[in-house]
Automatic annotation (TrEMBL):
<dbReference type="InterPro" id="IPR003451">
    <property type="entry name" value="LytB/IspH"/>
</dbReference>
<feature type="binding site">
    <location>
        <position position="17"/>
    </location>
    <ligand>
        <name>[4Fe-4S] cluster</name>
    </ligand>
</feature>
<feature type="binding site">
    <location>
        <position position="273"/>
    </location>
    <ligand>
        <name>isopentenyl diphosphate</name>
    </ligand>
</feature>
<dbReference type="Pfam" id="PF02401">
    <property type="entry name" value="LYTB"/>
</dbReference>
<feature type="binding site">
    <location>
        <position position="79"/>
    </location>
    <ligand>
        <name>(2E)-4-hydroxy-3-methylbut-2-enyl diphosphate</name>
    </ligand>
</feature>
<feature type="binding site">
    <location>
        <position position="129"/>
    </location>
    <ligand>
        <name>(2E)-4-hydroxy-3-methylbut-2-enyl diphosphate</name>
    </ligand>
</feature>
<protein>
    <recommendedName>
        <fullName>4-hydroxy-3-methylbut-2-enyl diphosphate reductase</fullName>
        <ecNumber>1.17.7.4</ecNumber>
    </recommendedName>
</protein>
<keyword id="KW-0479">Metal-binding</keyword>
<feature type="binding site">
    <location>
        <position position="129"/>
    </location>
    <ligand>
        <name>dimethylallyl diphosphate</name>
    </ligand>
</feature>
<comment type="pathway">
    <text>Isoprenoid biosynthesis; dimethylallyl diphosphate biosynthesis; dimethylallyl diphosphate from (2E)-4-hydroxy-3-methylbutenyl diphosphate: step 1/1.</text>
</comment>
<feature type="binding site">
    <location>
        <position position="228"/>
    </location>
    <ligand>
        <name>(2E)-4-hydroxy-3-methylbut-2-enyl diphosphate</name>
    </ligand>
</feature>
<keyword id="KW-0560">Oxidoreductase</keyword>
<feature type="binding site">
    <location>
        <position position="79"/>
    </location>
    <ligand>
        <name>isopentenyl diphosphate</name>
    </ligand>
</feature>
<feature type="binding site">
    <location>
        <position position="229"/>
    </location>
    <ligand>
        <name>isopentenyl diphosphate</name>
    </ligand>
</feature>
<feature type="binding site">
    <location>
        <position position="229"/>
    </location>
    <ligand>
        <name>dimethylallyl diphosphate</name>
    </ligand>
</feature>
<feature type="binding site">
    <location>
        <position position="273"/>
    </location>
    <ligand>
        <name>(2E)-4-hydroxy-3-methylbut-2-enyl diphosphate</name>
    </ligand>
</feature>
<dbReference type="GO" id="GO:0051745">
    <property type="term" value="F:4-hydroxy-3-methylbut-2-enyl diphosphate reductase activity"/>
</dbReference>
Length: 316
């Protein structure tokens, strides 16, 4: 039987960012250095394939520090943790490695700097997301207020409208965040923003690639986990940019083929915590069903690399 034709617009950049790559290396190097098991507080990154692979190598994933024995190393996830977590680890004399993405750490430092200057912080982020919890946990309770939408800006109650600043989660929709920032600035003209955009380069670049593809694609597949904020944002961005159907899939086996019936142009990207092997898996699955033509769509070139902590590296 003749396969129907399909033009696949393959987004670039896509997949792993520097912070995710660094966090995974930290877990692998910790297992090599200290042997198994090595404990990891929360999923090191939001991707089941990655987490399962590290678990097979000897990582044990837990949600809280009290689930870790004091005599084994523990790693904090790329999303960052409240200050109380390393404080508890030190109290228990635990060996720990902080795999927080440096761009998330930048937001932590920024929030602390604003607080030291006497400013109350408003954080733009998703309630319950580990990055939001970690950032808000850098300061005493009440010093950081959370807003998720433009509507939240109307109701937020601050101590002094003339002495506030804002920070953001690094994995938000660029466009949504711009709207919330505009609402904050309209209500609080004196509000202080970050010196440099908090939304990370990888989130921004992946959204821009999707925007370039969406108007010419009948469907968009986003490889990523359902608990991955940046992956879910890519699905939303595709829909807003003109793609009539977008689907989040963890693996090729998750593709809803019935929804793709009759599709002749498709976009494909991957969230910042999704490995390239899963993208290749989806491409192979498409090639099995379609006469596939792949057209790369590159909107940026990434060459960012973050060093792993010195405790895991050999002395120079």
């Amino acid at each position: 039987m003749t396969k129907p034709p399909l033009t696949l617009y393959l987004a670039a950049p896509r997949g792993f960012c520097a912070g995710v790559d660094r966090a995974i290396k930290i877990v692998e190097m910790a297992i090599q250095k200290w042997g198994a098991p090595v404990y990891v507080r929360h999923e090191i990154v939001h991707n089941k394939f990655v987490v399962d692979g590290l678990r097979d190598k000897g990582a044990v994933f837990v949600e809280e520090l009290d689930e870790c024995p004091a005599d084994r190393p523990v790693i904090f996830s790329a999303h960052g943790v409240p200050k109380s977590v390393p404080a508890e680890a030190e109290h228990r004399n635990m060996v720990y490695v902080d795999a927080t993405c440096p761009l998330v750490s930048k937001v932590h430092i920024e929030a602390q700097r604003h607080a030291d200057a006497g400013l109350q912080i408003i954080m733009i982020g998703h309630r319950g997301h580990p990055e939001t919890i970690g950032t808000m946990g850098q300061l005493p309770e009440g010093d950081v207020l959370l807003v998720e939408t433009e509507a939240d800006v109307t109701d937020v109650v601050v101590r002094d409208p003339a002495r506030i600043a804002y920070v953001t989660q690094t994995t938000l929709s660029v466009d949504d965040t711009a709207g919330i920032v505009a609402a904050l600035q309209a209500r609080f003209p004196a509000i202080v923003g970050p010196h440099k955009e908090d939304i990370c380069y990888a989130t921004t670049n992946r959204q821009e690639a999707v925007k370039a593809i969406a108007p010419r694609a009948q469907a968009m597949l986003v490889v990523g986990a359902p608990n991955s904020s940046n992956s879910k944002r890519l699905v939303e961005v595709a829909a807003r940019a003109g793609c009539s159907y977008s689907q989040l899939v963890q693996r090729a086996t998750d593709i809803d083929w019935r929804a793709l019936d009759g599709v002749r142009t498709m976009g494909l990207t991957a969230g910042a915590s999704a490995p390239e092997t899963l993208v290749s898996e989806v491409v192979d699955a498409l090639a099995d069903r379609f006469d596939l033509t792949v057209e790369p769509v590159e909107t940026a070139v990434e060459n960012v690399e973050f060093k792993v902590p010195r405790v895991l590296r050999q002395p120079a």
